[in-house]
Amino acid sequence: MNILDYFLMGFLFGGIGTLIGGIISILIYKPSDKIAAGILNFAAGIMIAVTSFDLMPQAYNIGGFFIVTLGLTIGLIVVFLAESILPYKKLYKYKGKKLSYIRMSLIIMISISLHNFPEGVAVGSGYIYSENLGLKIGIMIAAHDIPEGISVGVPLILAGVSPLKVILLTLLTGLPTALGTVLGAAVGGLSDYFIAFCLAAASSSMLYVSANELIPEANVLHKGKSSFIFLLLGFMSGCYLSFGF
Known about the structure:
Elements: H1 3-27, H2 33-85, H3 97-129, H4 131-158, H5 163-172, H6 175-187, H7 192-221, H8 225-243
Helix pairs in contact: 1-4, 1-5, 1-6, 2-3, 2-4, 2-7, 2-8, 3-4, 3-6, 3-7, 4-5
């Protein structure tokens, strides 16, 4: 396989899951406030579970306390910087709530990108070691990325973004996986500390998005027991994704 083949393979595994999530978002076009709140809580539950039982344990096992602490700090700084440089002037046609949804979705995309790059490295280096291992890792990543695609797509739908743009933006989140796959295949894996750093950085950004964006916005849209039920269902789904694969 050449570099282009690895790039396409990584983009396929990284983008197909989020693309499916984006399509699901389109199918629930213009959800009611109650449904929208439930979906946002569901996405937050998944992110919290994956962070708690997948990303952080791996990061600690690989890199130790210092690297994880550094990754958590840098990940949060990256999100803060991203918030400050988002091109709000180019989003002038989105106002009020719609602008906040666009902002939410873009921050989630950044968080997923931090998460997907080391996953791509795992695909590339795994494929070099064994074709079956690389394909297995890729399939697991695609399954993980479906709910992440929903978390990107739903705020875009709520903001009134066209279905075509939702598909393109959710598919775009596969790009970091593709780049990571090429790098992983080229060097046969990277420093364990670097992988741990990326996982920790993704963890802090996902926790920030969940606690500061998704859950508060869900509570604004609808307060009730159903919202917590969706949060719990998302958490359970995230646990299954972490332990079931």
